[in-house]
Amino acid sequence: MFTAALAVFFMALAKAFHLGKQSERQKQTENALKTATTRLEVENEVNQKSDAGVRSELSRWVRGK
To answer: Which domain of life does this protein belong to (predicted)?
Structure first.
């Protein structure tokens, strides 16, 4: 009886660990997707501006920090 309870406990522990691992992997994937989306948006905005406009925006951004 005790060994069966112990086996059930370890099975539940392993399942919880596996679910936590999957959840963390999903969070990392969502974060990577958000980062890639932001990068593409910035790249698109930079490509639409002239070189002088990009330099001006970067100067303003650096001074603002």
So the answer is: Bacteria
